[in-house]
What does this fold into?
Amino acid sequence: MRRLLAVTAGLLALSCAGRTKAPAVSSATAPAEAPRAPIPGMEHKPGEIVAEYDLNRDGRPDVWKYVTKDADGKEVLLRKEKDLNGDGRIDTWEAYGADGALTLVVYDLDFDGKPDVTLTYEKGQLVKKEYALGFDGASRSSSFFEKGKLVRKERDTNGDGKVDYWEYWENGEIDRIGVDLDGDGQVDRWETRKAVEGGETTAAQK
It folds into this structure.
């Protein structure tokens, strides 16, 4: 009976500790398990104030909120960093503009400390989505949006750092495709939607 009471008391103590844990606030220092390389647009800046939050109540911070103070002493949100899988490493980064609107989100999907998907926002709307599905964190494919609609895709199919494939979209469908055959960054061959559907290609255009 005593043993049962002791175990019950211990569980109650742990439960209460989890409920009463408050977010810790410290000076502007990176989390202990920071990514291996800085994420472009997410660099730490002098004078930042960081607040740490333990949202899953495991005793370790999993969200970091970075702010600065304006001339009136009001907090201005700069960035958020998140550890979504609880492994102690950041896998999501968010950047905010001077008006407090979200401007950039970066996801590390394979948890290697490098960006895999990057979303760019303007005035609250998604304008660009980049995919870096290799192992170097470099973007290989980008999608562009206007008023929430996909208008263009660009790809680097051979990994040389230059776009060599373009898709232009209208009304949710591919309108035409451009291909760079000689690596000069210019379209050598255009394919229209009708030609693609019919298995034919148009003449080269430059």
Observations:
- The helical segments are 2-20, 193-198.
- The two ends are 87 Å apart (CA to CA).
